[in-house]
Amino acid sequence: MDAIEEVEIVIVGGGICGLATALALHRFVFCVKSLIFMSNHDLDLIYNVRTNLKSNRNMLNRKGIRSVVLERSETLRETGSGIAILTNGWRALDELGVGSKIRPTALPVQRVCDIDLDSGKQRQAPASVGEARCVKRSDLINAMADELPLGAIRFGCDIISVNLDSKTSFPVLQLSNGSSIKAKALIGCDGSNSIVADFLELKPKRIFALCAVRGFTNYPNGHGFAPDLTRMIKGEVLCGRVPVDENLVFWFIVQKFNYQGSKFPKDAELIRQFSLDSIRNFPTERLEMVKNCDVASLSLTQLRYRTPWEILLGKFRTGTVTVAGDAMHIMGPFIGQGGSAALEDAIVIARCLSWKMLEADQLEDSSKQIMSGKIGEAFEMYVKERRMRLVWLSAHTYLFGSLLETTSGLVKVMIGVTILVLFHNPTYHTRYDCGRL
Prior knowledge:
The protein is an alpha/beta fold and 437 residues long. The protein has helices spanning 16-27, 32-37, 43-53, 87-96, 99-102, 137-146, 195-199, 268-278, 284-291, 308-313, 326-329, 338-361, 368-405, 409-422; strands at 5-12, 68-71, 82-85, 111-116, 122-126, 133-136, 153-155, 159-164, 171-175, 180-188, 206-218, 228-234, 237-243, 248-256, 299-305, 317-318, 321-323. Strands 1, 2, 7, 8, 9, 10, 16 and 17 form an 8-stranded mixed sheet that branches. Strands 5-4-12-13-14-11-15 form a 7-stranded mixed sheet.
């Protein structure tokens, strides 16, 4: 029988959340300056560490906690076209040290313009409080991966099961190639079909009766569009467009789709034709945009989500195992917070885990049981800090998705009123600050 490899921290999934979490742990700097920013998080820990600093000055230079990212694919998963990053997401990217690398690749988005083609009504609102950009997912993924140490990402690692070691209660991962890995801490950032979420027995994600097509269109001579997110709606079809740079435009189409008994087209040309059929009554400019798109960028997906009450009541931590990103709080794309929320997760979980592991290092008894307890405390802190933030985000996107789903005029009015009452400030979610590492 092959020996079980032991790894301190394992992150499952090499997407945005997984790479951001690994980078946040790598960026963690233990220094007096960090203590100032952490003073509101764990006063007792800070007092103890300050005391220990006097007798161990070498700790001032400690930087980074090593983790291993296990990615099922053989390369970085760059599919997914564009992704909106709003002010709260840029705060997290700056904390990760990659914000300055990504900003030059994308134009700042100024406004959100909604146009109802049936009624002729138009509405405008700021895109964010501060900064909003639509970036290429591949740019974001590569920028974070480039900052990780060599060997931090392992490709071709398909996890088939997670179990707990009977002696230590640490999680043991079984890979499809027959090998096993024991981790002190396991973080599932493996998306909506998360094997780690299954281990935690989270309820299966739900499915909107909606699908979304996403893609890029390149305009070699420049598109000339204003730096706005412009959404047009006609009947049950929503078509949005936002510039990435002077030549590239990211677009999406959301519409009702009866997925029961139906099959999504997988061929890129069929997806393009499906999209053209969906917006055949839209302005010519939108039709030309889809017609001339980069077919290699096209994706067609069902929209999935967790309800706000499942976020409120969900058990997102067992022992030294937790989840983050879509594995924890998959939500519709309607308020553009999926990516930014995942980046927030990464900062918070790295902060909580780093400080609790550091606290364990300072104890005379640093047994596996002590370490397990500290990691469990860290994950409990993380879940507690994130829960209500995610409840509000999921509630907003759930209501928006329900508004697009329903055909009842009365229900539409009721949902619309609820959104206005609860979320009268459309940019409230961009004000959030996830804090420092």
